[in-house]
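Record pair follows.
FIRST:
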Amino acid sequence: MGRFAVIGLGTFGFNVAGALFQKGHNVIAIDAAEEMVQRAREVASQCIAADATDRDTLESLGLDDVDCAVISVGDKIDASILITLHLTELGVKMIVVKAVNDTHGKILRKIGATEVVYPEKQMALRIADRIGHKNVLDQFTLGDGISILELIVPAQLVGKTIRDCNLRRDYGMNVIALKEIITGAEEYPFSLPSPDDVLKENQILVVIGSDENIEAFKQRQTSL
C-alpha cells in the first residue's frame, strides 16, 4: 500500500485521511493545532502536531519519500504556497493542494503542485449539472479538459445500438460502461459495452469526452 501525508485536518483533509486509511494506506496526518491532531488519531497511521510551513520540520518527518502529499490548510493561501514549495524542493512525487480560487491555483501549479482541487466549486458544479439536466446523474473531471458523464439513457437513444447513436462521430465521446438500474440497489451493476449493444430505458450510460463536447451533448438532450 502507499504512504501518504495529509497536511491540514479540517473537513476536507480529515476526510481524505480517513478514506485513505480505510483503504489500508499508511497515512501521516499533520496539523498545527493539537486538537485537530487528536481528532484524527482514529483515521491515520500517525498523527503529528507540527508547523508544516517549516521546511526542516517536513524533512525531519521523512515526507520526502511519501507517494503523495495532500495539502488542505483552509484559507491560508500563504501557508499552502509555502508548504507546496517545500515539498517540491524535497522531491515529493505527487502534491495535491486544495485551492481557494483560480489565482491561488495557478500559483500552486507554477511552484510544483501536480494537482489542484477546488472541492466546494467542483461539488457545486456537479450538483448544478445533476439538477439542471434531467437525465444527468453525475459528472466528474479527470483534468486537462476531460470529464466522465453518467446519465440515464435519453429517450431518443432507447432502442438504438451504441454504434447507431454515433456519439463518437457527433460529439467526440466514447461509451465506457453501461449500468443497469435496479430498484432498491445501493450500487448498480455495470458492464463493458460493445458497439452492438442496444440501449434500454432502464440503463445508465457512462461516457468520456472533452468538457466542451459533453456540454454540447447535454444541451442537445435538454433541447429535445
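SECOND:
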Amino acid sequence: MTAPARPCDPQAHLIPFKHGLPNLTASLRRQRRTRVIAIGSSSTAGADGILPFPCRLEMLLRQRWYGRMIDVINRGAGGQEAPEELSRFECDVIGEAPALVIWQVGTNAVFHDKVYSPDAVEAAIAAGLDWLAPLPIDVILMDLQYTAALVTEPAKLSRSRDIQKRILRVAKSAGVNVFRRFALMKGWCDDGIPLAEMDDGGEDKLHTSEWATACVTRALDAAIASRTDR
C-alpha cells in the first residue's frame, strides 16, 4: 500500500516579504496579460524529472486570480549562477517586459565553490538589481535550497550561510524582496521532516524533491499574494 503524501504547511508567514509588489498588482488590476519571468539555474529550469517551480507557480497564480492571463516564463539554465544569468538579462528578462522577476541565485555559488567567487556573485546580483531598478518591474530574489549537498559538510554549510547573508545584504540595499527558501526548508527540518526528504534522491543530493518543490512553490505563491492587493 502506498504511503499517503506528506501534507504541506508552507508557513510563509515565517519569511514575510518586506516590500509591496506594485507593478504586479497594477498589471493584475488591468486584467490584461501579466508576465512573470523566472530566471536562475536548475532549480528554475527543472532537474531529475521534478516539475520545477515556475510552471507550478503559474498554475497557482491562475487559480488565485481566476480569469487573468498570467504567464510565468521559465528562463532557468542548469549550472549557471548570477554572473551568467546577468549576461542573459537584456534578452531573457528586460526584453520580455515582465511585471515581476523572480531571480533564483546562490545555489551554484556553494555547489560549485571552486568556480564562483562570492564577491563576484554578490557584485553580479547588485548589478542586475541596478539594471532593473528604474524599470516598472517588481523583483523577488530566491535564495538557495536547504538540501544535503549544501549543508552536510561544514565548509558547504559555512559557504551557504555566507551566500545567504550576501543575498540579503544586496536585497536590502536595493529595496527588493527575498524569498528565503533556505530558511523555510531548514524550518521544516527543524520541525522534524528528515533532511533526506528535502532532495529528490539524485546522486548529488542537490535538487529539491517533489514534495519540497511543491511546498516551496505554495509558500512563494502565498508570499506573493500577501503583497499583492486583489
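COMMENT: Strands lie at 33-40, 69-76, 100-104, 138-142, 177-179.
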